Amino acid sequence: MSTSAIVMMVISMVVLWGGLVAAVTHLIRNPEEPDES
């Protein structure tokens, strides 16, 4: 693999896993209340 391919792979992994971690921490800090209807 070339250097640019490795850099792009690392960037995409950071974006994906960073978004997942941000979503999980947001849900932990602000849990959704279930609808009681």
UniProtKB/TrEMBL annotation:
Keywords: Membrane, Transmembrane, Transmembrane helix
Transmembrane segments: 6-28
Protein name: Methionine/alanine import family NSS transporter small subunit
Species: Nocardiopsis coralli
